[in-house]
């Protein structure tokens, strides 16, 4: 009896290992929410290739022109066109519910619709995806948003930093974005215009159907 159990368990674990490692908490995507094509801490990239290190954000695919939404109220602290990352916005979303800073980097964008210093409200269109995904190496040839949460913005001189650590001091040890959804940890929450969401929480940075 035991060996059957062990085989079943190992099969389940094997199939699910990447996902469990990837998210470190179960994630529910509501109906109509665009899919996550590479999860937080996944070792698999958007084209299914092995990553050299754990993924530090979540990747969400979308069509040309797809709007990118502010995940909470905040202040734009940086806009940039990274040589590898492409157009990028960094927003200070204030404190999470435990009082720690929530700094979001929105990477691999097309057109940027906001300026540094600008105040944004949750759900506001801050950017669009575009057809630039072959132009910037880090976008890996698949049009998508890379959404990453850090605790510390790298302001001021960037030196030779590139990629996430150009924007977030803790780029290499990012925080799991699934911890902060308005509906609760692991409960991806679509932004709905007439809804009020608790402070210190995030809503999905792309529109749901
Ligand atoms: Zn990514």
UniProtKB/TrEMBL annotation:
<protein>
    <submittedName>
        <fullName>M23 family metallopeptidase</fullName>
        <ecNumber>3.4.-.-</ecNumber>
    </submittedName>
</protein>
<dbReference type="InterPro" id="IPR050570">
    <property type="entry name" value="Cell_wall_metabolism_enzyme"/>
</dbReference>
<keyword id="KW-0378">Hydrolase</keyword>
<dbReference type="InterPro" id="IPR011055">
    <property type="entry name" value="Dup_hybrid_motif"/>
</dbReference>
<feature type="domain" description="M23ase beta-sheet core">
    <location>
        <begin position="54"/>
        <end position="151"/>
    </location>
</feature>
<dbReference type="Pfam" id="PF01551">
    <property type="entry name" value="Peptidase_M23"/>
</dbReference>
<dbReference type="GO" id="GO:0016787">
    <property type="term" value="F:hydrolase activity"/>
</dbReference>
<dbReference type="InterPro" id="IPR016047">
    <property type="entry name" value="M23ase_b-sheet_dom"/>
</dbReference>
